[in-house]
Each structure stands twice: as structure tokens, then as C-alpha cells.
Amino acid sequence: MKSIIDDIQESLRFYKQRGCPGFDCSEDALAKMTAWGQSPPSPIETLDRILADAGDCRACAMSQSRRNLVFGEGDPCARLMFVGKAPGPEEDARGKPFVGPAGELLTKIITAMQLTRREVYLCNIIKCGPSLHSPCRTSELNACYPFLRRQINVINPEFICTLGSVAVQTLLRTKAPLAHLRGRFHDFHGIRLMPTYAPDDLLQNPDKKRDVWEDIQKLMRAMER
Ligand code: URA
Whole-model pTM? Predict the structure, then answer.
């Protein structure tokens, strides 16, 4: 790197002496170039690094009530990521996403897709729970969202299935109701995103199971291609 920069600097000095126009040969430009070779290598982003950054997060009030941070689990190279809103009491107690009653239902949905929990990646927007107030505050969502964004960047899935209105509205930056958003793919930075109801919604309203199964079947068909 250093020899390349030396060569470029030497050429620029030569052009400067010759009075050639169209090149930035100022001392400032040459000094900036020297700094290229000296800048530290950018750290490689990994899920472990994000977990370490999130680990002791105190950015919002939810951190005060958490027992365990619920970061996410599954295949770090998964083609499909499920994103919910926030952990419930069972998830908080165990530090794992979707392990309570809603999680059992989600596991059944994943099995019906001919997949296992280990083959997908499961996480939430908010990493601390349970929520002290429903719906979650915008400040809490904003504080936690960067961790999810980094997780998505690292996993780089082909598909995201958002569970519930908060998850899709946060990712797509929309206030549109879930009923209008579900059932079709949306684009999230080149990733195909299918919104559907959260398993918690299904426990309250079992009549939504038909809609969820329709959404999941669309997802399965797209994943087959
Ligand atoms: N609901 C969610 O959105 N996330 C969980 O982890 C559990 C229930």
C-alpha cells in the first residue's frame, strides 16, 4: 500500500512541477494520501461484536427491567430471518427469542415450512423485555434498531418475515396498518420482506391463522425458486 501511495504522490509532484492542470497536487491532498496507508483496518463486523456492543446497553429504560438480553439465535447465514417486536417474560428469563407460548406457535409454523429453528434466524427489534408499556415507545425502538440493522447486515438473508405491526412498521418506516401491508413482498434494502401477524396476535385471535398461513405459503413458494 505504502509503495503505491509513494508512486502516486511522486507522479502528482511531477505533474505539479510541469504545471499540468486537472490534478489536485496540493500539499493537503498529498498529506491525505499518506494517511490512507496509516488508517487502522476497519474492524470486521460479526454477530459476536454486535452482541458485545449490545451486551451492556443502557440506552433506554427497558434495560433496567431486563433479566437477560435477548439478542437472537439461529443460523448466522440463514436465508430467512424472523423479526418480532420484543421479548416476553419467558424470553427475558431465558435470554432466547420466541421460547414462550407465542414462540411455540412460531416453532410450529417453522416446522410446517419444512424448516427447523436452527436453519432460520430469530430475533426482535427490541432486545430487552418484557415491555413495561404496550406499544413500545418510539425512543426504545430507535435506541435498539441499530443493533437489528447490524444483525441484518451480517446475516444478509434473502428473506425477512416480520411478525406483527411494530416490526414491519419499524423496518419499512411506515405507519400503514399491518392489514394493508401483509400478504405481499416489500423491499428492504434488496431483501424480500414478507409481513405477517405475530404469533402473539394468533394466540389472541386464532381466526388470523388462515391469513398467516397464506403469507407463509407465499414465502415458501418464493424460497423454492
Ligand atoms: N413475541 C415477540 O415478538 N418476540 C418474542 O421473542 C416473543 C414473543
Answer: 0.82
Q: Please choose from 68, 81, 163, 165 the residue to mutate so as to test ligand 1's pocket, defined by most ligand atoms within 8 A of CB.
A: 163
Q: Which residues pair with 193 in a beta bridge?
A: 160, 186
Distance CA 185, CA 218 (A): 9
Helix, strand, or coil here: 24?
coil
d(CA 32, CA 148): 34
Instruction: Report residue 42 as a C-alpha cell.
Output: 476497519
How do 191-196 and 186-188 pair as beta strands?
Answer: antiparallel
Residue 173, classed as helix, strand or coil, is: coil
Q: 135-148 burial, b for 16+ CB within 10 Å, e for fewer?
A: ebeeebbebbeebb
Q: Work out the mean pLDDT of the chain and round it to a whole number.
A: 90
Q: How far apart are CA 148 and CA 139, in angstroms?
A: 15
Integer Cα distance of 7 and 13 in angstroms: 10
Q: Which helix (H) or strand (E) holds 163?
A: strand 159-163
Spell out where 16-158 has E strands: 73-74, 80-84, 121-124
Residues with CB under 6 A from ligand 1: 84-88, 91, 97-98, 100, 102-103, 124, 163, 198, 200
Distance 14 CA to ligand 1 centre (A): 64
pLDDT-derived band at 116 (thresholds 50, 70, 90) equals very high
